[in-house]
Structure to design on (346 residues):
């Protein structure tokens, strides 16, 4: 069974971070999320991937190549114009096994695929949708289930108060290739708005199975931040956080931290980071690899990607900085989200 990762969206709600970057390449704990995702799926025995790219495809291709470094095979599909979530699956048809996984690549999760696959095999539907619950389902695809786990209704982004339940589409599907017969070629097709409702109408068998563990769509700045706070709180236990120096303080390799620096946990510091005297970092901050932070910098609830340079005396609160930013001396930045106006490699 191979896996198709949908990674072509424009990531508009995460701009400016995604202005020149595919959303799934946004860093999570100092690594592109897509890399964590591939490692997570590989651990469950999936070693053959197709990535459906569109927005800055070369960034994904340059990063992963053929997948050799991760011990997997990766192939790519391309779209001249956005084909939508179902159109992208149809476009990948020649690469897909008779039964395959589809994963929205912007979902940060630790779901296990085997129970989903077993459920799919038992129920014999055309598709099994991984489900999770959220407080406000209006931003997601919402399902109405019968007692056997069959989906009776799929409503994408219902108006507040109109959702049939709190059970939502987690963006992870086990699919049989016969689904592709129901997706038209060469035009934009939404799996959520068009294909799922059609499959339900035609009684092709659309089932839902709740997944377990952490789940968060990284598509907005609020949720992107929340993922990091959950990581630092260990509500989400990503295995690759690195070495923990003290309770709630993770510092990477080869760092040059002045003895007068105060870390207020939880904080995560990448590799090769330099921090000057009397700087106070945390609580809730993530500093990327190769960052330089001057003296007397105050940094709370802030996420900084690789190779940033914060001059002495800056005050940063609740900010997100993309790659390679220089943060000017004595600036006070509150809730700033910044990225460079040029393409930077992940
Ligand atoms: N290749 C390709 N082409 N990928 C696409 C396209 C496209 O035209 N459009 C979207 N994608 C990718 C995005 O990059 C993302 O990884 C994934 O498909 C989902 O798109 P989003 O734009 O993030 O959708 P959403 O978050 O609003 O809603 C979807 O995910 C929810 C779970 O987080 C839907 O599937 C909802 O039903 C679901 O609940
Ligand atoms: Mg999304």
């Amino acid at each position: 069974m191979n896996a198709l990762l949908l990674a072509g969206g424009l990531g508009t709600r995460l701009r400016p971070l995604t202005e020149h970057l595919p959303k799934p390449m946004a860093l999570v704990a100092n690594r592109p999320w897509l890399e964590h995702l591939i490692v997570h799926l590989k651990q469950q025995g999936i070693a053959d991937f197709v990535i459906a790219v569109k927005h800055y495809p070369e960034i994904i291709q340059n990063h992963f190549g053929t997948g050799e470094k991760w011990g997997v095979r990766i192939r790519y599909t391309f779209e001249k114009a956005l084909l939508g979530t179902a159109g992208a699956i149809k476009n990948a048809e020649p690469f897909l096994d008779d039964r395959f996984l589809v994963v929205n690549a912007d979902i940060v999760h630790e779901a296990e695929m085997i129970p989903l696959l077993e459920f799919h095999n038992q129920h014999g539907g055309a598709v099994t949708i991984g489900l999770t619950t959220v407080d406000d389902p209006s931003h997601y695809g919402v399902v109405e289930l019968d007692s056997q786990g069959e989906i009776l209704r799929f409503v994408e982004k219902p108006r507040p108060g109109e959702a049939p339940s709190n059970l939502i589409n987690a963006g992870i599907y086990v699919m049989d290739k016969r689904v592709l017969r129901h997706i038209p070629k060469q035009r934009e097709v939404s799996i959520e708005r068009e294909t799922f409702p059609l499959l339900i109408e035609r009684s092709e068998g659309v089932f839902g199975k709740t997944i377990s563990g952490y789940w968060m769509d990284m598509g907005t700045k609020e949720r992107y931040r929340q993922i990091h706070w959950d990581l630092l709180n260990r509500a989400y236990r990503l295995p690759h956080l690195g070495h923990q120096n003290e309770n709630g303080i993770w510092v990477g390799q080869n760092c040059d931290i002045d003895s007068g620096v105060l870390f207020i946990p939880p904080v995560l510091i990448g590799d090769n980071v330099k921090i000057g005297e009397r700087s106070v970092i945390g609580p809730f901050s993530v500093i990327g690899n190769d960052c330089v932070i001057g003296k007397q910098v105050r940094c709370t609830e802030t996420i900084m990607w690789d190779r940033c340079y914060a001059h002495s005396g800056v005050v940063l609160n609740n900010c997100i900085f993309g790659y390679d930013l220089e943060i000017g001396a004595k600036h006070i930045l509150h809730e700033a989200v910044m990225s460079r106006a040029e393409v930077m490699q992940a």
